[in-house]
User: Which sequence fits this backbone?
């Protein structure tokens, strides 16, 4: 006899019941055993905007078996990106959906915007995926910091070939690499041998730009923030990805750096035609001064929270264009191109031509505590990190 919904909606009761049926069970196995097709799920959720440490709560709920066009997935890996924090703070343009569908008393949203999940089961009207397939999210705002979810295919993009790929690689493909890809291709028709200059070069986007740029024959000047230790290692790390010049912000601002640029660009005959701005502030003016006439400076991030002031001389006499790029808008406008971009980066990853960025993974098991999860999120906007935070889910199928 199938148990009542009331029983199934209580994670604790269900877990206790399962424990008595199967013994012995390790703590890490406690959840995720499906009973009668129901999935026990956890998510990191918030019902008001604020600092992650103040508003994020670990919430348990159950998911009924899918029917019709519904698909039940379990997450495999979900990164923690700077924009996710801004979204929880309420200062990001894409707002998450607040809903009571997860059996919360207040309308609640799940954190996280990017990730990869595995299909566990699907209703009889679902044709595009089957059990075991991997999917990523079509848009921002879905909420990816959760062990399981139930949705429809209009929110999902199937990964056509997952062979040779790790969940962490697929879970991080749709934001940073696609942003770097489009910024390198869509603003300037850069030719092999021509240069781009970027700040925040050790960010996820910056690392992707270095690698894609090198594959396409572009040369790059890469600016990173000066740090007290590990500077040489960082320079070598970025050079190993294909960075031609790596400098600190301080070195970049020095007068003699102009001579170095002149020499590297063959006296300007191999022009710097594109700038990528992750950081903001006065550094952007200095970068723009190195650009050839008719070049573009594309802003995609504001990590320093400092405004960019447009240098009028460069606008008037060199016709430098200052542009912005937002991958979310581009993805909504060009979903087919987005899929092609994702596919191409995954192919490069499989071939070993596109390397992972350094990560700080946190394994999210059934027994992982709220504090551990929230701490991983809260640290994201602190600078000088050794890698990007990413939840790697240990919930077995
Ligand atoms: N517009 C878009 O479509 C789009 C897409 C993706 C990302 N983004 C934005 O791009 C930025 C980077 O994202 P990501 O995922 O690549 O980041 P990430 O991998 O987490 O790296 C963060 C970067 O920001 C730097 N940083 C941190 N605090 C800073 C500060 N106070 N001043 C200057 N630099 C600072 C870090 O340098 P240190 O190592 O020196 O701390 C690091 O290079 C974020 O603002 C994000 O929202 C925008």
Assistant:
């Amino acid at each position: 006899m199938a148990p009542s919904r009331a029983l199934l909606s209580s994670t604790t009761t269900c877990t206790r019941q399962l424990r008595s049926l199967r013994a012995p069970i390790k703590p890490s196995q406690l959840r995720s055993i499906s009973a009668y097709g129901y999935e026990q799920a956890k998510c990191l959720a918030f019902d008001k905007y604020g600092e992650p440490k103040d508003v994020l709560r670990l919430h348990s709920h159950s998911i009924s078996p899918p029917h019709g066009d519904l698909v039940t997935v379990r997450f495999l890996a979900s990164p923690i990106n700077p924009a996710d924090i801004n979204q929880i703070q309420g200062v990001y343009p894409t707002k998450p959906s607040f809903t009571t569908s997860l059996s919360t008393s207040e309308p609640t949203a799940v954190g996280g915007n990017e990730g990869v999940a595995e299909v566990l089961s699907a209703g009889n009207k679902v044709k595009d995926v089957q059990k075991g397939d991997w999917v990523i999210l079509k848009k921002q705002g879905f909420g990816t910091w959760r062990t399981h979810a139930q949705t429809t295919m209009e929110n999902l993009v199937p990964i056509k070939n997952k062979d040779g790929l790790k969940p962490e690689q697929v879970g991080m493909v749709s934001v940073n690499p696609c942003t770097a890809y489009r910024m390198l291709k869509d603003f300037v028709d850069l030719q092999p041998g021509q240069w781009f200059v970027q700040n925040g070069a050790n960010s996820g986007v910056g690392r992707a730009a270095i690698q894609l740029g090198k594959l396409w024959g572009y040369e790059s000047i890469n600016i990173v923030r000066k740090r007290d230790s590990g500077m040489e290692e960082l320079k070598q790390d970025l050079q190993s990805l294909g960075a031609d010049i790596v400098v600190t912000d301080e070195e970049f601002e020095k007068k003699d750096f102009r001579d170095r640029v002149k020499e590297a660009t063959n006296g300007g005959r191999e022009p710097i035609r594109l700038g990528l701005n992750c950081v903001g502030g006065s550094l952007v003016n200095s970068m723009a001064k190195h650009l050839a006439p008719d070049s573009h400076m594309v802003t995609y991030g504001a990590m320093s929270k400092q405004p960019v002031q447009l240098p009028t001389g460069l606008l008037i006499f060199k016709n430098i264009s200052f542009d912005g790029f937002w991958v979310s808008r581009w993805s909504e406008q060009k979903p087919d191109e987005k899929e092609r971009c994702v596919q191409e980066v995954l192919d490069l990853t499989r071939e070993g031509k596109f390397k992972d960025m350094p990560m700080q993974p946190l394994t999210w098991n059934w027994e992982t505590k709220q504090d551990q999860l929230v701490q991983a999120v809260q640290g994201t906007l602190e600078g000088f990190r050794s890698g990007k935070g990413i939840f790697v889910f240990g919930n077995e199928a």
About this structure: Residues 90 and 369 are 25 Å apart (CA to CA). The chain has 15 helices and 16 strands.
